[in-house]
Amino acid sequence: MPPYRLQVLLDMREKAKEEAEQAFSAAIKALEKEKQVQAQLEAELERRKKERKAKVAEYFQQMMAKGAGISGMNMMGRFEERLKDEEAQVALQIEHQKEVVKAAARLVEQRRMLMAEAAKELKAIEKNKETFVKQVRQERQQREELNQEEIGNALFLARQRK
Q: 68: pLDDT confidence band, cut at 50, 70 and 90?
């Protein structure tokens, strides 16, 4: 059988498809990692809110037990504001992380499209190779039939001469 003249292209398309699949897989892993980071940040924010409420209540109890005045209440207010500021920082991190997750999701979709395109191109060249192989087999079969016919004709003519 003659060599397939587009074999190099077929090999390139197979390699491109494998690379696209690997890039898609890596993008999915990165997206999952970013989602985990976001979930951790959200859990951290919830933990901080609960912790703030508990600390403020505890601080308030201590102040009431000591009989604290206005300065104690002001200190408690500053303490609570500082904790709220920390929560706001975590909330900003969460918003930033949401953008990172969106970007990772867009990258996953882009990689999915590239993978689909690579698979489509590979399928097209494989279809071309199947057609080539079928054509070569058909030509070989026709040559064999022609050879058989010639052999049959030669035998027939040889019998007729005798």
A: low
